[in-house]
Structure formats: structure tokens, C-alpha cells
Amino acid sequence: MWRRIPERYRMAGSLCENCRQNFFPRRTFCPICRRKGKIVDKQMSGKGKVFAYSLVTAPPVGYEGEIPYILAIIELDEGPKVTAQIVDCKCDKLEIGTKVKSAFRRITEDGDEGIIYYGFKFKLDK
Amino acid sequence: MIAGIIGYGAYVPRYRIKAEEIAAVWGEEPDRIISGLNIKEKSVPATDEDTVTLAVEAARNALKHSGIDPKEIGALYVGSESHPYAVKPTASIVAEAIGATPNLTAADLEFACKAGTAAIQMCMGLVASGMVKYGMAIGADTSQGRPGDALEYSASAGAAAYIIGKKKEEAIAEIIDTYSFTTDTPDFWRREGADFPQHGGRFTGEPAYFKHVISASKGMMEKTKMKPEEFDYAVFHQPNGKFPLQAGKMLGFSSKQLERGLLTPIIGNTYSAASPLGLANVLDEAKPNKKILLTSFGSGAGSDSFVIRTTDLIDKKRKGITPLMDYVNDKQYLSYGLYVKHRRKLKSM
Ligand SMILES: [Zn+2]
């Protein structure tokens, strides 16, 4: 978890300068160009649109306090798709293609005394 | 000018609870509360929000407004009385989230409701001395009162972030000067490990809030040789909707000068963010060359006062602002039951 803080906190991604493909999470190797690829850092804007979503009512361990919540696949403006929660929103406001932007939230915590994990979720981009 | 505001950002969570909803649960007369405290409703954080997440949202808005590279921020301070960790700084998480790490100094500050303005003063000193190019000062809180306590009507959540720099040509407002007034006063405290604060009833009004706010504001005006009527706006710490109006009146300010910076009636007391958010709301509408008096208050007790003057740049950089009122007006009301869930109060009752 700790090594991936730049990705979780501010959506730091990668770009292959050879084929211009963006990657998120980051990659060290371009799966398209293989040895010809040239990977550099690329900051994702955090903006995108809803590709798919569902309402979660039976949560995994650690997320019990948050149900019901919306889990979605977001297609970022830069191309990559990510799975994340959509917050501050009711399902009836959501459609495929609805514009969203990233929000910084608590993801989970190791109990009352453990570490708190922060990262990106999404909210409506009005 | 000692330093300037290069950019600023505000954030208020989306959820609200009405004073009448809280009053109904405790069998109180809602009108007595609403008129007594001048608070209609207050902000409540989402279940996955805390002081860190609020601070990050405000910091990102400030960065966007300033247009600076986050790597140029040499100091970052977060003032709060609700840091999520007792040991492990909020400031380093915020710095990482905005991409300011690793070449900066960072620390958390605590001085009840005035830690945010203390952060602004520290950044002023660092940029004026040339030690850092830009400093970021944040006031953020997700405060709570004990269920049934009067504080339950006021303690709310919000954050404001200010980027402080030295160059006048980059500033949307100049910080002309600052003055502080501090004494050891036992008006309000929370012991390490305690969930809720306690207040020393008779100490909260006269000897605490009013003594410090009035003394700091008077001292500030004497130091800059300014009179109340010369200011276009005045912003005072606002633990409720009544105290700042009374303090303003005692100092000789009109309610019109105070109107724009008074947010507690509609979002509650955001503690360390309270007067910084009031200033943000003023800056959101202020034209160039407007003079602002800002005075915070923190229990324990102290006040920091500032004289601020907007520059021509404020109009030119208005487009980069995410207005505070966008957050204030985009709201969803909670029932008391949902509010308890949001504030995780169950274990403490
Ligand atoms: Zn490639």
C-alpha cells in the first residue's frame, strides 16, 4: 500500500512516449510497444465519466459503516479505466457517461488504532 | 506589506443537519436555540471524510487558484483540533496528496480555533525572510460536541487553505500587518484521549472570546493607524452567529461590514477553518483595493489579527476560484439518526 501512495493520493500514472498510450496505475513497461516503449510519468487529471456502476448493499469487511455505496468503473479522460466509489451522490443522479471528478477520501482503516488509508474516490463533476 | 496571498481555496462537506432536528431529539425549544445562537444549520462530514481529506480538498482548490507548481511550496502547516492521529502529522499526508513532497518542511499546529491563522503567520515569516518561496497555511476541522451539549448545535466541519508568498505582483491580496494577543485562560479544553471537549462555563464569553478578539483587533488597528470605518470588510472568529456581531459592534463596525464574512449561521462553527473561511467568502466577491480586518480566536486563549488589502490581480485571477458558496449551497440534509452514524458518536454515548 505504502509504495503506491502517489497513485492512491493523486492519481500519478504513466505515458508511453512511443505509442502515446496513458496508463493508470503506473507501468514500467509498455504492453503494446514492448521493448520499443518509452515510459514516463503522467499525472491523471482526475476527470472522467461513468462506464458502469452498481449499488453495494453487502459490503466487504471494513466498509460496513458506508453501505449503501456506489461502486463504479470510471473511464478517465486520459483513457485508462479505474474502479472506485462514487460519493456524495444518489444512484438516481447517475447514468452511463455522467461526468465525474476525483475526490480525496478515507478508503479504510486498520481498526480504531491502526493506520488510516486515504485515496481517490469520485464525485459528480457539476 | 509583509507577505501576500497568492491563492486560496475553501471546502465544506455536503451534509447538513438543522438545529431544529437536534433540538427535537433533546426536547429543546428549536426557536430558542436558533435565535439564541443564531445558527440555523451546520455542516457534517461524510462518513469517509476527516480533517485530512477536508484539508486536501481546500489545498487543491488553493493550488488551482494560485497556478503555482506544488514543488515550489517550501512549508506546509495544518492547524486543527481534530487531527485524525495523535502522533503522525496531517501535514505530510496533505503535502503528499498535492504533490509538494519531499522538499518542504511540514507540521501540524493546534491552538483550538485559531491554529489556521497561526499557520498563516508562520508562513508570512518564512516567506518574508526568504527561507521559502511559498508557504501553505491550512485551517481544517471536523469538530464535535458531546451529544446533548450546546456545542452539538455549532461544532461543524470545513477547511480553508492559503498560499502565502513574498512577491507583490503575484498577490491577489497583500497582508499589510499582523498582531496577536495571547493569555492563559481556562475557557475550553480537551484532554489527550478524551472524545469530547469541556468548557469552563463562565469563562467562555467576556474573559475569553471578547477580551481577546477586542484586544487583538484594537491592537491591530492602533499598529496600522486605521479606524473601523476605513475597512470594507471585517471577519471575526464565529463560535456562534451572535458573538462576532457583538464584537463587531463593540469595536465600532457596522453589521454590513460583517455580513459577507459571517458563515456560522448557515454552516456552524468550523473551528480552525472558521475565520479563514469567512475571509475566503469575502475574497470571493471583493473588488481590488478593498481593506479587510481579520481576527481569529482560539480558546486557551489567543487571537491573531490581520489587515489585508486586495490587489488588481484579484479580479484577473477570479476564474480559477471554486467559490465557497458553491459548497455551501450544494447540500443534503441528514436526520439525527444518520447524523450520529456520520459522526461515529454511538460508542461515546
Ligand atoms: Zn507504447
Describe this structure in words.
Chain A has one helix at residues 5-10, and strands spanning 12-16, 22-23, 39-43, 47-56, 69-76, 81-86, 99-109, 116-124. By secondary structure, chain A is mainly beta. Chain A folds into two domains: 2-43; 47-124. In chain A, a hairpin with a 5-residue loop joins strand 1 (12-16) and strand 2 (22-23). The longest helix of chain A has 6 residues, at 5-10. Chain A starts with a helix and ends with a strand. The model of chain A has no long low-confidence stretch (mean pLDDT 92). The longest helix of chain B is centred in the middle third of the chain and has 20 residues, at 205-224. The interface between A and B is medium-sized, with 18 and 22 residues. Bound molecules: zinc ion. Zinc ion is lined by residues 16, 18-19, 21, 30, 32-33, 37 of chain A.
Give a short overview.
Chain A is mostly beta strands and 126 residues long. Chain A folds into two domains: 2-43; 47-124. Chain A has one helix at 5-10, and strands at 12-16, 22-23, 39-43, 47-56, 69-76, 81-86, 99-109, 116-124.
User: How many strand elements of chain A?
Assistant: 8
* Low-pLDDT residue spans of chain A: none
**Kindly, what is the distance between the CA atoms of the first and last residues of chain B, rounded to a whole number of angstroms?**
50 Å
Instruction: Please tell me the total number of domains of chain A.
Output: 2
